[in-house]
Amino acid sequence: MKSSRAVLLPGTASDEVFVASVFASPLAEAGFTLVAPASRGVREHFEALDAAWDGTPLVVGGVSLGAHVAAAWAVRHPERCAGVLVALPAWHGPADGAPAASAALASASVVEAEGVESALTGVDGWLGGELRRAWPRYGSRLADALREVAGSTAPTLAELGGLTAPVGVAACTDDPIHPLDVAREWVGALPRAALRTTTLAALGADRESLGRAALTAYLSASAEARV
Questions:
Q1: pLDDT digit string (tens) for 169-192?
Q2: Percent over 70 (pLDDT), the chain
Q3: Are the C-beta atoms of 149 and 138 separated by less than 8 Å?
Q4: What pTM was computed for the model?
Q5: Residues of the chain with CATH 3.40.50.1820
Q6: Which domain of life is it from (predicted)?
């Protein structure tokens, strides 16, 4: 039996390398094939999802911004979507000063004025390592990419309420940039959704912990949908 494809998108100024480290193994164990486009920013993410569509409903999703775009695509094209994996949603509707949007704006200003390393001063551990790896890949587009995210709109709660595909939502209980309450609001609005949590510490030790949380939530929502 041919495995289903899952198209997963990266978050703000992140990349397909991080997406693969989070999702590839958990998805493979569940019989899915990961497609991780090397797309950058909102427009390219939508284009990547459109390009992946081949007439068979897709599981789509992503991390933070990638999750927002995937959910918006699913809202626009319900017939193309078999399910959604949402990792670390940062807001719903307009950003309106959400912590992730404010952080992106602040980082963009420092990147332009002082460079990448200054913008990452004090960002240590696994997260600092990931950003120091991924951010240079954006080159001169980095500040613009950060600002685009801060001005982007996620699906509203009302739009999420019309998404009938099963949705798995994963959040870190100790992440101030992607608040757990936002993830709970997404799940509360979605007709068929489940939430699983992990922590930033667990994610640092094992990237797959986030992917497993999102996939476990999705499988739970799928099972409930069949009852």
A1: 999 999 999 999 999 999 999 999
A2: 97
A3: no
A4: 0.95
A5: 4-94+155-226
A6: Bacteria
